[in-house]
Amino acid sequence: MKKFDKDRLILGFAGPVLALVVALVLTTVVLLASGQNPFEPYRIMFESASYADVQVLIINQAGTYYLAALAVAVGFRMNLFNIGVDGQYRLAAMMAALVGASVDLPGPLHIALIVIVAMLVGAFWSGIAGFLKTTRGVSEVVSTIMLNSIATALVAWMILPKNFGEQPPGSNNLTTGEIPESGWFPGLPMGDMAGEIYGFTFVAAGCGVLYWFVLNRTRFGFDLRATGASETAAQASGVDAKKMILTSMLISGAVAGLAGMPTLLGDTHTYSLDFPTGIGFTGITIALLGRNNPLGIALSALLIAFLDKSSASLDQYGYEKEIATIMQGLIVISVVVSYELVRRYGIRRQQQKVGEELAAGHALTTEKEAAL
Amino acid sequence: MSGQGECVINASSSPPAVELHGITKRFPGVVANHDIDITIGKGTVHALVGENGAGKSTLMKILYGMQKPDEGTIAIDGEQVSFANPGDAIERGIGMVHQHFMLADNFTVLENVVLGGEKLYGIGSGARKKIMEISDAYGLGIRPDALVEDLGVADRQRVEILKVLYRGARILILDEPTAVLVPQEVDALFANLRELKAEGLTVIFISHKLGEVLSVADEITVIRRGTTVGTADPANTTTKQLAELMVGSELPSPETRESTVTDVPMLRVQGLELTVTDPDGTVRDVLAGIDFTIHQGEVLGIAGVEGNGQTELIEALMGMRDPDAGVITLGSDDISHAPTRKRRESGIGYIPEDRHRHGVLLNAPLWENRILGHVTEKPNSRGWLLDNKAARTDTERIVREYDVRTPGIDVTAASLSGGNQQKLIVGREMSHAPKFLIAAHPTRGVDVGAQAQIWDQIREARREGLAVLLISADLDELIGLSDTLRVMYRGRLVADADPATITPEELGSAMTGAAAGHLEGSEDEAR
Amino acid sequence: MSASKTIAARPAPKKGKDRRKLSLPVVLLIIAGGLALVSLVRVISGANDITSVGQVRGALALAVPIGLAGLGGLWAERAGVINIGLEGMMILGTWFGAWAGFQWGPWVGVLFGVLGGCLGGLLHAIITVTFGVNHIVSGVAINILAVGVTRYLSNFAFDGVQGGSSKQSPRIDPIDRITVPGLSDWMQDLQQQHWFLISDLAGIIGGLVTGLSLLTVVALLLVPATWWILWRTPFGLRLRSCGESPVAAETLGVNVYKYKYIAVTVSGGLAGLGGAFLAIVSTGIYQEGQTGGRGYIGLAAMIFGNWMPGGMALGAGLFGFTDSLKLRGGAENVHAMLLLLAILLVIAVFWQLYKKKYVSAAIAAAVSALLFTWYFLTDQVPSQFVDAAPYVTTLLVLSLSAQRLRMPKANGVPYRKGEGK
Amino acid sequence: GENSSDSGSGSGGDKAAIAYDIGGRGDQSFNDAAYAGLAKAEKDLDISGSEAEPSDGEGDADKVQRLTELARSGNNPVIGVGFAYAPAIKKVAPKFPKTTFGIIDDASVTGDNIANIVFNEEQGSYLAGVAAAKVTKSKTVGFIGGVETPLIKKFEAGFVQGVKDTDASVNVLPQYLTQPPDFGGFSKPDLGKAAAQGQLDKKADVIYSAAGLAGSGAIEAVSKAGKWNIGVDSDQYKQKGLAAYKESILTSVTKDVEDAVFNLIKSVQDGKPETGEIRYGLDKDGVGLSMSNPAFTKMTDVIEAVDKAKQEIIDGKITVKTAP
Ligand SMILES: Nc1ncnc2c1ncn2[C@@H]1O[C@H](COP(=O)(O)OP(=O)(O)OP(=O)(O)O)[C@@H](O)[C@H]1O
Ligand SMILES: Nc1ncnc2c1ncn2[C@@H]1O[C@H](COP(=O)(O)OP(=O)(O)OP(=O)(O)O)[C@@H](O)[C@H]1O
Ligand SMILES: [Mg+2]
Ligand SMILES: [Mg+2]
Questions:
Q1: Closest alpha carbon within chain C to D149
Q2: Distance (Å, rounded) from C-alpha D129 to C-alpha D309?
Q3: Is pLDDT of B278 > 90?
Q4: Which of B250-254, D36-40, D205-209, D215-219 has the lowest mean pLDDT?
Q5: What residues of chain B, 44 to 103, have a C-beta less than 8 Å from chain A?
Q6: Residue B81 alpha carbon to ligand 4 centre in Å
Q7: Contacts of B among chains (3+ CB pairs under 8 A)
Q8: Within 13 Å, how many C-alpha atoms sit on residue D238's CB side?
Q9: Range among B262-266, B440-444, B453-457, C218-222 with highest mean pLDDT value
Q10: What is the pairing mode between strands D101-104 and D114-119?
Q11: Closest C-alpha among C275, C252, C249 to residue C263
């Protein structure tokens, strides 16, 4: 096996690189076909990404995406498709903001309280789907889609001034009230114009490490992966599959609950009608693109955040910024297709090698035994 | 031989039904077939034997157009052919019953049969009529509108055969058709085969049960490590010789030599009841009044046609189902409602009947499969953390000691042949010094060499005081290995027998419900 | 003592045969019972709109796009390909439908909508079938791509055209609508009598024969047509076999790739038709963001309906019905539904008691009591909760009904020719 | 398409920019009106304008970045269209003290270089209510709001009050299409259609829809039923996309974002930048009822009542509520 390692490394890189090239070529074709300058948009995007403030924006956004994608990935690892991350993080952020705004505690405690509330709410919301799946067999795909919309309604109701929200004087917005400064998560200042990197971005990175550690180094993680790989085999091995489904749904929801925290604790300090939406769905893309692997997810989150932010100013230069969306779709497709092609190519190569060796007179068994 | 090529068929010297010449097929890391030559005469039953992974199924898939050979030629009735897909092979009158059922569970028998052959008799009443016609002609007893998932294995096997006959195949490939059948069913199948042969059909037959092979085949080809190593004439070959040809060693026997049964009870089951509720609300008993005790050093064999509650019994013992009544005692602990993990930790080993569903994670590497089921035990973990390094080292030991044929411990379980997967499972379960072992079909689909190893391991552990519950469809194995035999029928233990005196035929008839009570005079059941 | 001397005459441990099918009379009975209950609630609450002709018409109009997406999902998943890209294919349908529709008339629009959807389906087929990529990844990517492409193209195709903008197409001529002359009026009158059951029935029939767009008729017919094609023709048998056991199909000479391609392309076409319906019939224009997640809802309706056309239609109908209910004076209508729910739960209580499941019975009773209290203490439901009605209803129906969902066995499982066991 | 470029095309060299709200240019309402103001300024004041669109579901940080970039490249004023820009402007404005920041529909953030452009939507809606109450024969009128936000509730509040003050026996049916942050209620015309149909079935014969593009569905349904529509934001009688239904559009409640934007740009160019709250009400014709449908202007008693109410609001005799 050892001797294939270098090849494997090359092949491992060949995939993504091939994919990016193909995606760029296709995007260029689209630009050409619509009669636009095929290179200028890239230049604008890279130039825009060279500004410190855009870089900070990219990193902050990637942190948020990373958490959402981790939440999705926990589910995927169990063969659960949590489409509900979106509803979970919105509801969690809203409740956490409410609680955060209504108490005044010393700094770390205040932040901890907010974060814990967010995790609990997220877990509660996904837990409904988990509960329905384990007790009533309701597909989590359906229930989480429904719960997303129900979360929207619930948030809309709770944020009404007559319930828990407030309408700042002179504003047409509704908010949950501002969290006192003790509940703000300090960020890393990057200079006057650039703004600061949310402190929670580092927490997100920590979550990635934790995710890796739990999945690969703990008994629980093994059980979780086993259940995802084969529910029946896991059950026979002593895993309580139902409990596992519920647990991983709860974890997924708790992590989803964190997805709103970078923004809430680092920037807005309140939940309002214009709190970012749709992050849960982007999280699905990123988790899939990163193949549920913590490092892969991190790279994907950065990539998608880069495309998002660096394309934001395209329209000011007369280019349609939808081109970045097209590019995103093309990248996702070509990356996964190339993974597959590279995998098959690897297999063919291996096959060839074995054939050659055989032709050279080595018996199959020696090949096998040598590998031991 | 291929020089015979050009396709003029003389009535006088009719060409062989199938000629395979120089077939080579490579898979990643494995050469499944290497320069294989086989000629099969018309109207004969030709058996193919060989170890697990010898390349039998691959060869047949090539003949059936499912896989393309890397090299070599195929001639049917003297005419050279090249099949792009099974459709082409079917058109040439080839039919194949696969080693694993090729049935859509959620389809009716009728749908499964007509699929792909809709042009023959339509998909409605015409087809139903034809199916009944064939079913009656061969006594298959097929119900066209039954859902396949509701059928037992024997019925499924018959559906598979009917699928082939429905298409009017002249050349039948049967890949291990008897692995899941009881003797009576095997006899019925063989009767059918002889009938088919009399009608001029050619049958290619694969089996690990050499006795069967000798009884039904006209000619035998032995394959070893992907290539033909010889042919045998069943009339003057013994199973022993055949086995030697296959593996270069003696035919193993499951015979238990000396009794090691002690009178220390290891597992005691009293009044076990299990019911299931169907989606429509009806409650059925699947296990009723199950009582038995297994002592240290004892192998209790349970005979029975599949689907009579064996699976449920195993699952109740493993804690995968919660019994409605009854007590299960392991040693001195009541484990009736203990979770599976606790049972495994307290010393129950489990060789599942369906290894792909319950035994391995197909897409996980071998060393992770070694952890499966014993994640809380040493050497796999320390406290809450996994000990991957120790697990890997121990996997290497298992691979060595249990002769698992694999290029390494990082390959996925799926890339091992079934027999080797089984050896890994046995090795894993034995590595935790079980007090009580559930062995369900421990050698199903496993070649003779591996069979012997597995039997040896069970015997050895038994000598050291292991209690074993053995469930098997292979009655020779059951009789040979067990100290005590019980027969399960419709969720109850209806009969018991002494393995020393009972014959497979007698046991077989008890399994169909024809006999009950104690099957032989001598009452030496250890209770 | 253990070995009994007689063979117990217990039912065979094999599974029963008749457990799957609800016979037609039973289904009709359930529907009639449901209708009677709704009617009762209507009479008690006075929310006469819940079975009015307009309500049923509205429900139908809102259900059709969801149903078409669901039908699309059904085709793909019956052939073993998960299609989470329905949303994207629907978006393509709205865009292409409107683009061709405003220039060459609505029917050409419908055709292009279908073709647009097919394009998405074909792409999904190439990625999943030929390249063997994870179906969900591919679907998600198609959703992104469809959004990007349509928005991008709008800048060139609609911006600057009379009545259009970069977000919206010019108006498309409407498709003819049919009303069954005498029947429609008669039903309308009957419905307005507000009689128990009769008026409700009249409302439903009236809703189905009044101002029906021809495309709605087509969409409705597609449900039985799908059933017939998939369950009564050799083509359908082969297609479904690819979703249940592609390897078995392969061994019988079925070209699995071909059927998967066809199925997924048709799937896209149906979702595209749903999009075209939205653009041409529901609204008369393309509007960015118009599909608004209906592809996902369609997917949910399909799972709700157990991968069967009838069940899927029922699911889509449920969404359409509750959606329409909430849009047509939700506060009052949905308030009436509280009562319905409470009564349903009472029935559930008795059922659970009969089944001796006391805990579930107690829970159901408690929730029911809560609902009754809520109903009698208020006369409106906050509009925010009204909005959630379709989703809550679906969740409730799913969790209260016995779950025997069964997806095609090989759905989502990658398949490569010649690699089967 | 090709719109403004980065380099100033006007000889004047002054630059102004608007940053759009969700929907962006082409929404045929709010954002388009703002664009019209910019375009007018480009033409009349010889300035060069820039536009920037938001992406779906973005956060404050993106808006901060967008405004910063627009300000940094020398645009003055920089106008955020929509209340969602409030937190961003609060952060950016102090960093560019020489640049004027305009924000539409928000008066909560204040600063020396911030101009808060707000409208008395409720006043225009009040007049619509008066007209509706006068015109209805069935004594039932409908209100359709796109998304249930405080802003749209202002429309509802004014309308209901106008109806009730005119004829207390008239019943108002309010209906919202979606809840925030699901802004589909502004972009799904079929929802508007279903809601309008429901109100028509309940005998409503005048329906006021404040639902952005979803309103076109309502207008279609109402027009087919031969009843009256009241449009919103711009004069929908003149809107090309709705030409087929114009006869049924009795009037529209207008909100003059165009002039508001233009005025702000002009004030900056004139060297006297507007700052603080700039309120556009009936008095300044910032909101009002359109009078382009001859069928409406012919209803003299209705017009009379509307004019009277308008005067009373301007005179402060009537105060219109901003929340129902
Ligand atoms: N599709 C495949 N991909 C990779 N390897 C394969 C594939 N099919 C078979 N093999 C390998 O080829 C070898 C021969 O397998 P084959 O199934 O022909 O054995 P067999 O003689 O039928 O064994 P058994 O008696 O267990 O059925 C095995 O090592 C097997 O692992
Ligand atoms: N696509 C594949 N890639 C890798 N290995 C494969 C593939 N398909 C089949 N195999 C392996 O090749 C072997 C050939 O299949 P086959 O079913 O003949 O094996 P087997 O030894 O008879 O297994 P069993 O005893 O479980 O029936 C199996 O072990 C299977 O796991
Ligand atoms: Mg085989
Ligand atoms: Mg085998």
A1: C384
A2: 10
A3: no
A4: B250-254
A5: 70
A6: 28
A7: A, C
A8: 10
A9: C218-222
A10: parallel
A11: C249
What's phi and psi for C227, nearest 5 deg?
A: -60, -45
> Angle D194-D196-D200 (CA atoms, 0-180°, nearest 5)?
115
User: Hey, which bits of chain A come out as E strands?
Assistant: 188-189, 196-197
Question: Searching chain C, which residue's CA lies closest to the CA of residue B311?
Answer: C13
Q: Can you tell me the mean pLDDT for C396-416? A: 80
Nearest Cα to Cα of residue C83 among C409, C415, C412, C417: C412
Do B453 and B52 form a contact (C-beta atoms < 8 A)?
no
CA of B415 to the centre of ligand 1 (A): 9
CA distance A349 to B30: 13
The number of residues making up chain D comes to 324
Closest ligand, as measured to the CA of B102: 2
- Top mean pLDDT of A341-355, B343-357, D22-36 is at B343-357
C-alpha span between C213 and C65 (Å, rounded): 13
The answer to whether C302 and C312 are in contact (CB under 8 A) is: yes
- Please state, in angstroms and rounded to a whole number, the distance separating the CA atoms of residues C148 and D272: 42
Angle A186-A190-A193 from CA coordinates, rounded to 5°:
110
Q: Residue C11 has which token pair? A: 């039912």
Q: In Å, what is the CA distance from A107 to each residue of A176, A186, A187, A265, C33?
A: 19, 10, 14, 12, 60
SS3 assignment, position D255? strand
Q: Residue C44: in which H helix or E strand, if any?
A: helix C24-45
From residue A244, how far is each of A134, A140, A224, A226, D34 by CA, in Å?
10, 14, 7, 10, 54
Q: Which residues of D94-133 are buried (b: 16+ CB within 10 A; e: fewer)?
A: eebeebbbbbbbbbbbebebbbbbbbbbbbbbbbbbbbbb
By the 8 A CB rule, do A265 and A114 touch?
Answer: yes
- Chains touching chain A through at least 3 C-beta pairs below 8 angstroms are B, C, D
Which residues of chain C lie closer than 8 angstroms to D32, CB-CB? 165
Identify the bridge partners of residue B274 per DSSP, sorted by sequence position: B287
Of all helices (H) and strands (E), which one includes residue B35? strand B30-40
Q: Which two tokens stand for residue C240?
A: 């479904």
Q: Check pocket membership of B29 for ligand 2, CB cut-off 6 A.
A: no
According to DSSP H, which parts of B115-229 are helical? 118-121, 125-138, 153-166, 183-198, 210-216
- Which atom, in ligand 2's list, is nearest to the CA of B53? 21
Instruction: With beta carbons less than 8 A apart as the criterion, state whether B446 and B52 touch.
Output: yes
Q: In sequence order, what are the residues at sequence separation of 6 or more whose Cβ sits closer than 8 angstroms to the Cβ of residue A229? A: B361, B362, B363, B364
Nearest to D73 by CA among D65, D62, D61: D65
Residue C247 and residue B102 in contact, taking contact as beta carbons nearer than 8 Å: yes
> Distance between CA B38 and CA B20 in Å, rounded?
5
Which of B28, B352, B364 has its CB closest to that of A350? B28
Angle between helices A199-217 and A294-310 (to 10 degrees): 150
Q: Any idea which residue has 């006068």 for tokens?
A: D134
Q: Among partner residues C147, C382, C394, which is closest to A146 by beta-carbon distance?
A: C394
d(CA D10, CA D49): 9
Q: Residues with beta carbon inside 6 Å of ligand 1?
A: B 27-28, 30, 32, 50, 52-58, 99, 417-419, 445, 447; C 419
Of D66, D86, D87, the CB nearest to A312: D66
Can you tell me the distance from the alpha carbon of D127 to that of D159, in angstroms, rounded to the nearest whole number?
7
Give the separation between CA D128 and CA D123, rounded to whole angstroms. 9
**Each residue's pLDDT tens digit, A172-188:** 889 999 999 998 999 88
